[in-house]
Amino acid sequence: MSTDHQRARAALGARLRELRFSCPDGRLTGRQLARILGWPGSKVSKLENGRQTATPDDLRAWAEATAQPDVYPELASRLAGFESQIRSWRRALANGYASMHADLSWEIERTTELRVWEEAVVAGMVQTAEYARCVITRYSHLFSSGRDIDAAVRSRMRRQEWLHQSGRRLHVLMWEAALRSLICPPSVLAAQLDRLVGLVGMDTVEMGIIPFTASMKIVPANGFWVLDDRLVVAEDWHAEIWLDDADNVALYSTVWRTLRESAVYGTDAQNVITAARRSLNPR
Question: Would the pTM count as exceeding 0.85?
Answer without folding.
Answer: no
